[in-house]
Structure formats: C-alpha cells, structure tokens
Design brief:
Blueprint (H helix, E strand, L loop, with lengths): L3 H6 L2 E2 L8 E2 L19 E5 L7 E6 L2 E6 L34 E5 L4 E4 L18 E11 L5 E10 L3 E4 L7 E9 L1 H5 L10 E4 L6 E7 L5 E6 L14 E2 L5 E5 L7 E4 L2 E2 L9 E2 L3 E4 L8 E6 L2 E6 L8 E7 L7 E2 L3 E4 L2 E6 L6 E10 L7 E3 L6 E4 L4
Antiparallel strand pairs: 1-2, 3-4, 4-5, 6-7, 7-10, 8-9, 8-11, 11-12, 13-14, 14-16, 15-16, 17-20, 18-19, 21-22, 22-26, 23-24, 23-27, 25-26, 27-28, 27-29
Length: about 375
C-alpha cells in the first residue's frame, strides 16, 4: 500500500477556476504531519465559504479534520462541531431577497429568451461565497378555448444557468414572468420564495405566408397572402376581401405610374400596433401612363384626336369628351386605325368652345374602368374657320 506521503503528493491545488495548478505540498521534501495515515480512505471537501482562508476537510470514519490548502494542520487534530465551527451566520448563507427581474434578450413568434441576474449577498457578507443559485421563474398567460372563453394558465421552471429559453409558445400572447432567487440553504431553512415584480413580454406573430403582388393598372396594384394559421386571444383586422382559394387580398390605389415599389404585409393585433411582424418585401414596377392624346386635325365643325395604345398590353379602350355645358360624357364612335395609331373623328362641335377629352381603359386583370387622365390636361378648343 502507498505511504501517506506519496498519496498526499499526488493531490493538486488550483484556483477555483481550475488555473494555477500545483502540488498540495509546497515542496517535494515536505512531509505530511497528519497523524492519521489512512485518511485517504475517507472523503475530501474544500470549503471556500471564506474566500481568504479556504480549508480542506478530511473525513475518516467518525473523524473530521481541517487543514489549510497546503496540507498543514493549523492546530492539532480538530473535531468540528457547532461550537467550534467558524461558519457564516444564517443571513450570509442566503442571497439578498431584493427585487430580481428577468431581462429580455430575444422574442419571436414562439420563443422568449431571458437573462437572469447574479445573486447579491446580504450586507456584511461580501467575503463569503454564496451557494449555487437556483432561479425559479413563474410564468402566467391567458389562452383561448374552443368555446371562445379564456383560460388563465400558470407554470414554474427552475434553472441553475443565468439564462433561460422558453420554446413552443403561442404567437401574439402576453406572458407575465416573475423571478425568485434561492439556494440550498433557502430550502433547508424553509424560507420560501420571494418573487420580484411582473415583467410582461409578448410574442410576435407569424409572418404572412405566400405573399404575391399583381399590378392591375398604372396606379393600382393588388397584394395577396394566406391568413395566419395560429392565433391566441387576439383579434386581427384585414381591410381586405377574401378570395375563393382562401387567400386575402388588398387593393392599393393612388400609386405613381412607371414607379418601382417594395411592398410587404404587416400583421399586428388590434390593440398592440407596436407588436407586429412583416413579410418579406416584394418588388413591383407599375405600368406606365398611357400615351398622350394629340389634336391631329381641325375642320369646319369638328376635330380629330389621335392616340397610340401600348403594344405590350391587350387593353380595351374608348374615347369620351364633353364641354362645361354637358352633363354627361359623350362617347366617340367614329374611329380609324392605321398601324399602331388610332384616330378619332369628332363632329358637330361648337365653335370657340373648349372640349375635355379622356380615355376609359379596361386592363386585363382589373374589373373596373380606369379613367385617364385624372385631370383636364387634354382640353382642346375648336377654332372658328373662315
């Protein structure tokens, strides 16, 4: 069997973080003065409650012996009991029961990650290390049942780490988190948990799916998307119409012809407009404005108007005109097409009278008339001809 000296020389000491490792005895020639040569058959425990003077406890059968970390007995063999043990007072065994709170790190539609604070020692206990902190988080929230009633739910989780990740949460749900810190001694002393103030964190929603954009006219476009699949006790409004295949769509008007737009769909609860989720951007180019109307001829009682339709679009169109005295717009029926140009012949016009002209167009994917231009830019006057 190995001698006690050789056994002790086999032990190492280090900082509490595992660095600066060296033998227990200061020199290889040092002898262990422990009177009990068979202590290695028991257990060893390092007590670092006093950071300045940590001790090593050796146990063997019914004996408990204290040494410094260099392997020397500071006094003859000491059997420790409550009267001799220099142990911290009760208040130094437990953390300060201050108002601890979780700190938000990340929130998504189904996850919440929080940081947890370090335990703080009570006043006058700064030189003692606290036992491992136990974090208890109380979580409560409202959930919806199938009968449209709400149910309050609550649960608790525990961890020894300084962060915690909640998974598989419900979108658009407000969770109330309360934190309590404890350790081994809090439980042994039956002190009970003291939770801090409420921290309310709300998950976001799922991003709208299958977003598509369709250009309808030079100033109008439509956006389509699938509705959210899973919601909690929140109401969401869409200023939209529902299509046959279950999609929603929204018509966006008053856009500028020929311009590029980035469009996305944002979803949020009615009462929490700052709690939103956006879809990916969709890039679109609006149709250009129709070509200008041109006064191409004036005769005794009428005038000719020419126009070139866009060759890229198969659209239906007609020309209308009126003066200030007319209540209704008049359609021009007399037309002639030469290559890509259309000429309209308007007769029976009054002399020295201004007439406004406009086009009524019907684009392939838009069921309403598109009136162009929206202003009176094409106003022509039939002059008196001698």
């Amino acid at each position: 069997m190995e001698s006690w000296d050789s056994y002790v020389h086999g032990f190492m000491q280090s900082d509490f973080d595992g660095k600066n490792m060296k033998p227990v005895l200061k020199n290889e020639s040092d002898k262990c003065y422990c009177p009990y040569k068979n202590l290695y058959e028991g257990f060893m425990y390092i007590d670092h409650t006093n950071i300045d003077k940590p001790l090593v406890y050796w146990t063997s059968k019914n004996r408990l012996i204290a040494e410094d970390i260099y392997g020397y007995i500071r006094s003859p063999v000491i059997v420790l009991d409550k009267s001799l043990q220099s142990y911290p007072s009760t208040k130094c065994l437990t953390p300060n029961m201050k108002d601890y709170r979780v700190e938000e790190v990340l929130i998504t539609n189904n996850r919440i990650i929080v940081n947890l604070p370090e335990a703080i020692s009570n006043s006058g206990c700064e030189k003692y290390n606290l036992a491992t902190t136990i974090y208890t988080i109380s979580v409560s929230y409202w959930t919806c049942l199938d009968n449209d009633l709400n149910e309050f739910k609550e649960f608790k989780v525990q961890t020894y780490e300084q962060y915690y990740e909640f998974q598989n949460l419900t979108p658009f749900t407000e969770y109330t988190l309360k934190l309590a810190l404890s350790n081994f001694y809090v439980d042994k002393l039956s002190m009970g948990l003291q939770f801090g103030a409420d921290v309310k964190l709300s998950t976001t929603g799922n991003a709208p799916e299958n977003v598509t954009v369709q250009v309808l006219t030079p100033t109008v476009t439509a956006v389509y998307w699938m509705p959210l699949k899973k919601l909690n006790c929140v109401a969401i409004n869409y200023e939209t119409e529902r299509t046959v295949d279950g999609k929603f769509f929204m018509t966006i008007r008053s856009l500028l012809p020929g311009q590029k737009y980035l469009i996305y769909v944002r979803v949020y609860p009615i009462n929490f407009s700052n709690l939103f989720t956006d879809s990916l951007n969709k890039s679109i180019y609006m149709y250009s404005e129709p070509n200008n109307l041109i006064l191409s001829g004036v005769f005794t009682n009428g005038m000719n108007i020419s126009w070139i339709p866009s060759v890229k679009l198969k659209i239906h169109y007609k020309l209308e005109y009126k003066n200030d005295a007319m209540q209704k717009w008049q359609k021009v029926n007399n037309t002639k097409k030469n290559n890509d140009e259309v000429t309209y012949y308007i007769e029976n016009l009054l002399p020295r009278t201004k007439y406004k002209f406009r086009l009524i167009l019907r684009y392939p994917d838009y069921m309403e008339d598109f009136v162009w231009p929206p202003d009176e830019r094409f106003t022509f006057q039939r002059l008196e001809i001698e």
